[in-house]
Fold:
Amino acid sequence: MNRSNSPETGFIDPSGANADAIQDLTEDVLNQLLEQLETANDRSPLPDVSTVPTGTIPDSPRSETDLLNDLETIVAGSMNPAHPGYIGHMDTMPTTVSVLGDLVASAVNNNMLSVEMSPIFSELEVQLTETIASEFGLGPNAGGILASGGSLANLHALSVARNQAFDVHDSGLAGLEGEPVLFASDVAHTSLQKAAMLLGLGTDAITAVETDANSRMKPSELNQAIEQAERDGRMPFCVVATAGTTTTGNIDPLPAVRDVVDDHDLWLHVDAAYGGALIFSEPERDRLDGVEEANSVTFNPQKWCYVAKTCAMTLFADLDVLQEDFRIGAPYMRGDDAIPNLGELSIQGTRRAAVLKLWLTFQHLGREGLGQLIDESYRLTAVIRDRVANRDALELASEPELNIVCFRATPDWCLPAERDALNGRLQRHLLSKQDIFVSLPTYRDTRWLRVVLLNPFTDKMTLDRLFDGIDLFLEAERP
Ligand SMILES: Cc1ncc(COP(=O)(O)O)c(C=O)c1O
Structure:
C-alpha cells in the first residue's frame, strides 16, 4: 500500500523497518508525560484551561515536535487527580499498571465483540467477572460483562430485569396491560433515569423512595410505594438499592430492602458502582451484607479500585438470564467457542479490552494492596468527619459510611438564604489559596462541600490545609 503521504512513524512497521524512529517517538512522548506526572504536585488540582489546541484537520502531517508541544499543553491544562489536594470527585489517579495496560490494549487493538477478535481477553473477562461476582457472593452461576461506565452497566441490568419480568425482548412494550415501574431511593444516581428513558419506560416510571437523615432508603416507604403502584394498576418489576450514593456515599439497608423485594417477587439490582470496592476490605466488607442476594450488581473499578477510566461491569447472579433475556446473535461471528461472544450479550458491540488494566491492577496490588488503600481512606475520613463535627460553623450532610464526607459551612452570622453563595466562595477560596479541590454538589436543595478521599497521596497535612483554609475563610468573612 502506498503510504508516502504518511509520516515515517505513522504505524509501527510489523517488519521492524522503522524501529528506531518509533523508539525515539515513544520515548519522547513517555519521557515528557512522566516528567509532567512526576511534577503533578506543582500544578493546581484543577488547572485553568489556558490553551486548547486547534480542532481543525491539517492537510499534511504535522511535525512530531509540534505534536509533543500540544500534548504538553493538553496535560498541563487537564484535571489533575494525581494532586493530593484533588479530593472533589470520584475520579482518581490511576494505578501505574492500568495506564500501561491501556497502552498494551490499544497497541494490540483487539475487540471484545467476539471470541475470535479477542481470544485471550474474552476468556480473561469471563474468568475475572466470575471471580468478582463470587467476591460479591452472588452464587455459583454468577458472572458478568464489562461496560464503559456505570451508566451503561445500570442500563444493562435494568434491560435484562425488564425483559425477564415482561417477556418483551421480541415484542416490545406496546402490548403490555399496565405501566412497568421501578423503585430507587430519592438520592439514587441519575443514570437510572436515563436507563428508564432509554428502555421506553420514561423517567416517570421510577418512583423515588424517601430516604432517612443519612440518605438510606426507608424500607417501609419502599413497601408502601410498591403497594400503592400495585393498587394503581401499575406493574412493579425492579428495585434498585444503592451501595454508595454519589453525593454522600451512604448505603441502602440491603437485607431489609431484599425482604421487601422478596415479598413482592421483584428483581433486586444493587448499584454498587462506588461502594462495591468494599469487597476488598476485611474490616469494612460487612457494610455490603445483603448484596449477595441481588439479582444484578453494578460495580465500577474505575473509581475506588484505581483502574484507569473506563472500567465498569454488570454482574448477574444467574448468567443464563443474559442468554435468555438479552442476547442478540451475530450471524457473522463464529459461534462454536466454549465461551460466548461477549458482544452478543452486552449493550456495546465493539469494545476495547478494558479487562487487561483491571486484571493487571488486581495482580499488581493484590487484595492486600487494595484493602490497605480502602482502609487508609477510612482513617482519613474519620479525621475529617470529627473535625467537621467539632466545629460549630460546619454541618455534616450525613454520617459517612464510605470515604466521602459531605458538609457545609453554616455559621450563625450567615442567613440561610446566603449559605449557598458562602459555600461557593469557600470552595473557590480552597482551590485558589490552599490548592484543595472539593466539589460543590446540590443535595436536598442546597449546596454542600464534598470530599472524596481517593488519592493515595492525600495525607493528614492535606487535611490540615483544608481546615486551615476553612477557618481562615470563615474568619475573614465574618461580619
Ligand atoms: C452510584 C453511581 N451509579 C452510577 C454511576 C454512573 O457511573 P458512570 O459515570 O461511570 O457512568 C455513578 C457515577 O458516579 C454513581 O456514583
Observations:
- The two ends are 74 Å apart (CA to CA).
- Residues 249 and 402 are 6 Å apart (CA to CA).
